[in-house]
Amino acid sequence: MFTYTIRRLLFAIPTLLAISFIIFALLAMAPSNPLGELPLTIPPEVRAEMRAALGIDQPLYVQFVKWLYQFFVNEPLNILQQVTGISIGDPNRLRILSWTTRSPVVDLIIQRLPQTLWVVGLAYLFGVLLAIPIGVISAYRQYSIFDQIGTFISMVGYSVPTFFTGVVLIVIFSSTLHWFPSVYDTNLVVRDWDSFVLQVKQMFLPVLVLTLYNTSQISRFVRASMLDNLHQDYVRTARAKGVKEKTVLLVHVLRNSLIPVVTVIALGVPTIFSGAIITEQIFRVNGLGQLLITAIQAGDLPLVQTLTFIFAVLIVLFNLIADVLYGILDPRIRYD
Predict the structure, then answer these.
(1) Of the candidates 80, 102, 101, 103, which has an alpha carbon nearest to the alpha carbon of residue 91?
(2) pLDDT higher than 80, residue 240
(3) Are 211 and 153 in contact, with CB atoms under 8 Å apart?
């Protein structure tokens, strides 16, 4: 397993380099001009100086190499310096700067990340914790009232788009009942019990919307996988040997059923860091999803490139984690 993991990590390096170049090239060909909103009265020589300051006057391959060096060398060294105080090389090294704010892109991402993790991360965690028992019970008691209600709610939660669910919850719980706020206050700081209650209240609606969607999606996979394994020969053999039904269900059937579900859960983790773009827009959550939309609208290519590449790294990483978990859940799978 260790050899396989190292081999996959080494193989991921050229893969990520190819992905980064494709992202960089596609965004460079996009019809966006960072100087397009400037007045036409600006002289051409001033525009040329501004293009040189942004670095877009150089060939594409030069811009790409500089971006790679800044992302893989300068930014990690800067993070190391901020965390530990250890300075390696030039402390004023060139970083990836946003075209619109002229702030370091990584600093903007770190600033928005906690909001996304609080809302999207908690929603995904709650979705997984609810989906597994719901899927197990629905499969074990197939066609029961619990299964029918769970199937109906799952189909509605997965089919109805999150922007519609969010608006409905705002109308019911915010506009009509006035129980929860409809707008997320990013500037709220938790200092005491009252501010903690306010934080929970403003998180409730967006977390509920995303939890319903995640639970609906994952529970259907768990139920289908459980049904495939409940009628296998090894289940009948275990029951014939007198193994307790609880052990058969939770140890034998559930463990084998989680193998395909691991892919769904692992590949869903990167969406936590990418943010729930639509839900963040509805509830005005100042997270990474909202940051990406703002960067695209403003034509801020360095910010879009960095965010998109980070999402690609997370997808490759969690693909590897899913493959490793296969070998842990199923002893028959051996990579070495």
Answers:
(1) 80
(2) yes
(3) no
With a pLDDT cut of 90, the percent of the chain lying above it is 1
Whole-angstrom distance, CA of residue 230 vs CA of residue 234: 9
pLDDT bracket for residue 250 (50, 70, 90): confident
| Interatomic CA distance for residues 314 and 116, integer angstroms | 15
The two three-digit tokens of residue 177, written as one number:
């009942």
pLDDT in tens, 258-283: 877 887 888 787 777 665 677 777 88
**How far is Cα 275 from Cα 285, in angstroms, rounded to an integer?**
10
Going from the N-terminus, what domains does the chain have, and what CATH number goes with each?
35-98 (no CATH), 105-329 (1.10.3720.10)
The answer for residues whose C-beta is within 8 angstroms of residue 135's C-beta and 6 or more apart is 218, 219, 220, 221, 222, 223, 225, 226
Amino acid found at 227: L
DSSP class of residue 104? B
